[in-house]
Structure formats: structure tokens, C-alpha cells
């Protein structure tokens, strides 16, 4: 594993490599945060990540928020399901700071930063130097030394690159070019019959959205968030008991 990809790998180990939606708010009161998310604080249930969906039937329009203190002053939120709303205005109200960041296998979203109910910065984590919002450079001081370029190719010569990744990618590209038709679903049947057995874990990573420059961009974004809040997303927090809310 390349160190520049370490936080993507952490999310992947907790089944969030393909999809993640997180928010961070400068407020240590979990009940207050739940209220501003539109949840009833009294409805919260303490649970671990592995038990988050236990006893619940979450449809495609449903959403859970797993909410817990991250530091003395910040709370971390991981959404599960369909967070079909914009939480930053309410989370950052009352002169608070808040951030929001997400990705899926289809792409990586910008990092949003809000203060006192208003978005201040829209920070592209895949296009170097691209910023937006009324205060576009508000996060620049936290970005030193980080990599935000989805087109970067320096990883190709990195000695810490996953063994066999380049060969697997070349084989996969040829396989797709030789597919009988666009309508064929590439992940079933005999499509992978000729794949080397030792590439099975590489295929699993790819299905979960792994791509070296994207994993680096995602890791860099989460490091930036950690610099703002004072603590990165880490295994100790993910293994803890936090409060589950329906939102």
C-alpha cells in the first residue's frame, strides 16, 4: 500500500471504498448536531459500525447518520444510505465551521467548507489549484504537501505500487476492448476466465473504486479535513460506539 492512499484503504476496510459521505462540524454536542440534521436527539441509538443497520430496514431513499465526537470541539458524521440534502448550512449555523466530502465509484465530489450557515470554499480535490466560493483560498494553508490531481501519473513508477497492478490494468483494458458488445456486462460469466488467479484481490479493489491517483486525492482530502479538525478519520474512531440517527 502506498502511504499516499492510506485513508482510502481505511475506508475500504470498512466497506466505504466505493461510496463515502462524511461531514464534520465544530460542535461537540452530538444531540445538538442531530437536531440540526433534522433528527430527534431522543431517537439516537449507540452502536458500532458493524451494527449500524441492525434491526432497520433502510430503503433507497432512507439515510442514517452515525454521529460521534472526534475531538474536544469537533463532531464527525458518516452518512449511510441516501443523504439527499445539503447539511452544511444548518450544521455551520451559529458561527460554526463545517466541512462535507463524499465520493462514489462514479466520481469524487469537491470538498465543501462552510462558516455560519454559508458556504465559503469549494475545493476541488481532483483538479490542482481549482477553488471556488466567496473565500476560495480559505483551506489552502491546510493543503500543504498534499496531492490533488486525478491525472497524475507519477504513481506508475512508485516502488510501493501494488504488485501486478500495471499488468492487471493492461489485461483489463484489452479485455474490455475485445468484449463482444457494449451490452455485455463485464463482471459476470466467463469474462474473467483468463485472468490470473493472483489478480483476484486487484479485481476486488477495482470494483470498489480503487485507482491510484484517485485514492491519493481522497486520502489527501481526508488529511486536509483532519488538519482542520485536529484529528483524521482513523480506526480507533471507526471501532468506537457512536450514535445512530435516522435523518
Automatic annotation (TrEMBL):
Name of the protein described by the UniProt record: Uncharacterized protein
